[in-house]
Design a protein that fits this description.
It contains 7 helices and 5 strands. It has 133 residues and is of the alpha/beta class.
Amino acid sequence: MKIFLDVNIILDFLDTNRVRHDIASQLFKVINLNHYELSISEDMLTNIFYISQDKKQTLRFFKTIQHKWNITHFGKKLVKDAIDLSLEKNLDLEDVLQCLCAKKNSCNVLITNDKKFYDCGIKIQTANEFLDA
């Protein structure tokens, strides 16, 4: 199974003070036990770094995942499509970019804790929903 993770899942995992830290930790255990393939987009690295409280820990995390996870790019066409969709439907550009990127890279599911995440035609689940499935 190929899984795309949203920024909030990774931040929940990295920051022990976040409300959903324990759920994110469980999620990563299940993912590792099942050897699922993980994907994120390269822009998420800067977003996560900017938001994170512990910059050194975040950089160490990036160093660990860079050879294990798929770190994908958008490309000009995907960016254009996301902008057009966001303008046309008044959507959150970041969500649209992530969803289209997950779809472009043939991910089976996108895991996010954002309840109003844009649906581009792939399965979208919260960490709890994924764990309960």
